[in-house]
Write the structure tokens for this entry.
Amino acid sequence: MNKSINAAVYEKHGNPADVLQIESRPWPVPAADEAVVKMRAAPINPADLNQIEGKYPVRPELPATPGFEGAGVVVELGAEVKSLTTGALVILPHNVGTWRDAVAVKAEELVVVPDGIAPVQAAMLKINPLTAWRLLHDYVDLQKGDWLIQNAANSAAGRDVIQIAHELAYKTVNIVRRAELIDELRAEGGDIVLIDGESLREDVKNATRGASIRLGLNSVGGDSALRLANCLVPGGTLVSFGAMSLQPLKIPTGLLIFKDLRFRGIWINKWYDNATPSERMEAFRPLFEMARRGLLKTRVEKAYPLSEVKAAVAHAAQSKRSGKIILEFE
Ligand SMILES: NC(=O)c1ccc[n+]([C@@H]2O[C@H](COP(=O)([O-])OP(=O)(O)OC[C@H]3O[C@@H](n4cnc5c(N)ncnc54)[C@H](OP(=O)(O)O)[C@@H]3O)[C@@H](O)[C@H]2O)c1
């Protein structure tokens, strides 16, 4: 009997729940420098939905299998692969399409996960935690006790920022749009949690006793991003990495002239592509360490099997979730 796999596939861009289908494919055969990875888990991130919709800067050749992120177990090695062993839990690169039962990948592109990290958590370490780490290291030279502010603080990326900042002894002002998240985010290590609104600047001033905030992290855009920028001290930096409101940034010229604010952005896929293998491992090391100690954890609202991918993407597109929607493989 020939072995086969199932894969999520879209032939045209559109609403993910409409355009995704499950198709049967032959079991992957590894080239000499490849390993076959049997998938264990893959999250559904906003970027995955954007790419299926055709709203992402990179458009794959169609038909395509989505999935920028995921982890699985090495089950087969190409003839020349010496760097891996079967049974290893690995994180996949962002360009293979992880929403499938198994995939053949160049061995050198796989990142081996150390023992003590659950596959579901490993599957979500590459995009949000790595982005959070870079956001906290590459833009402002933060010292212990320094403050930063972020919106959408309850997002997976926002919670990673909270957890990593807490570990590094930075203080966070966390902006959310739902009051029920305040206690939860405080319990995760958020120093201050506030509801977004017109009085944000005053609220932040009062809550931090006028602390100097030099770093703002924006994944919402529109008015929320402007309110964040208004909380920064002169010379401060606002780094944008998402646009959940789908609204553009509106920056008054005065923030540039009179406050000399700096506006930056990050795209983690680009950072990853440009990084050397040792820079990547350097970045993963502290994340693995935190994950192993249970200090870096991504919440999951619901896990779906691949066969229910349509329901899974519809669920992932909903706001006010308590955590990620993931695909979990048998
Ligand atoms: N540039 C990069 O390389 C990079 C890397 C990682 C992540 N990202 C981006 O970061 C963002 C967050 O990703 P994630 O995986 O952490 O997302 P997530 O866990 O799915 O969380 C989504 C967040 O967006 C909020 N939100 C949804 N619609 C909103 C709206 N209209 N106005 C304001 N807030 C809204 C949600 O708030 P509620 O819970 O209240 O609905 C929630 O806090 C996404 O835009 C993602 O693409 C970018």
Remarks:
- Residues 277-292 form the longest helix (16 residues).
- The mean pLDDT is 97.
